[in-house]
Structure formats: C-alpha cells, structure tokens
Amino acid sequence: AFEGHFLIGTAVNRYQVSGADPQAMPFIAKQFNSLTAEDAMKWERIHPEPGRYEFGLADSIVSFAKSNGMPVIGHVLVWHSQTPDWVFQDSLGYPLTRDALLERLHDHINTVMGHYRGQILGWDVVNEAVNEDGTLRQTKWLEIIGEDYIEKAFIFAREADPDAELYYNDYNNEEPAKRAGVIAIVKDLQAKGIRIDGVGIQGHWHLDSPDMKTV
Question: What is the pLDDT of residue 183?
C-alpha cells in the first residue's frame, strides 16, 4: 500500500536466508522494501575473534536485498551487548587502555563499513547508550574510553563511508527523561560539527504502553 512513499523494513536472520523456511524470503521481498540484519552484523557474529571477520551471512542478506532492489540498514557498530569480552582486553586478559580500545574500535568500524561501502543506506553507529533516567549507560566503552566514545564512533564511521547515513539508535525514546538524554547526545555531536543523520526509535510498544499522554 505504501510502495513508493517510504521504506518499511524487516529484520532477517540465518534461518530465513538459508532457506530453512522456504516461504519467508519470497514473502519478505513482496511485503517489505528495506532490510536489516537481525544479528549478522553485530560484533559477536561479524568479528568473533581478533583479526577474524565473518561476512558470509551478512553478505547473503545484502545480496538478497540488492537482487530485490531493497536498501539495507546496517545494525550495529557499537553496542554494549553481543560484543565479545576480548574486545575490551589485551592478549593477557587485562583491560585495554583508552588508546588501544579506540584503535580497535576504529579498525572494526573501518573494516566492516569498508567491506559494505556503497552498499548500505545507513548504519546504527551507536546503540542503546542511554539509561532510562537520561544518563549514559555504564558500559566498557564508557569506562575505558570515556564519554567521547560516541563522537569517536561517528567520526570513524563518517571516514569509513562518507555517503552512508549515520544514526543513533535506542528504545523508550518516548519517555521524557530518556528522550532528553538522547537529544543531548545529538546536540553535542551537532555542536562539535560531527554529522548525525537520524535517530532510530525501537518500537517496544504494546496495547497498553507507552501511555499516550507521554507521547
């Protein structure tokens, strides 16, 4: 019904792409016009060990999208969850220094985005960095690098693919305190001249929530 007006996407996983459900991909191609990898581009899947990248599944999703004229949204470059412990440790298991983790982050973003350069419409650069009260979530990224890990991620992403749209993504953005925290991130990036193209709003919505008075 909305073909040609705006994108309506869906997340795709290994089960669907592999053909285990033979009806899934034809249905997706007919009913949607944008794709996101459910897990295939998350750090633990695409970069499971130091120096080793696994692009196979994500490549299959991108290939399917291309063959059906569907833009792809990359998810996700920086997240506290589904990121292996080794990312934050040296070879002996000790916590990395700030500079070492920034180098590792730069390498990951540059490699992943470089692999898909020109093939991805936009990327969720940083995901779920804000607590419900609007403060920054206490993660290894924040603990080791500091608050500027967010701006560094956006800078690295812009360098890796200048033509891709870059987003901050989170849930419960409709709640005033959390929304204020997300807005603060966006305004801080803009004030520093760091480009951000949009904010992803995860729709964790139900019949009885969120309260319509909130939104």
Answer: 98
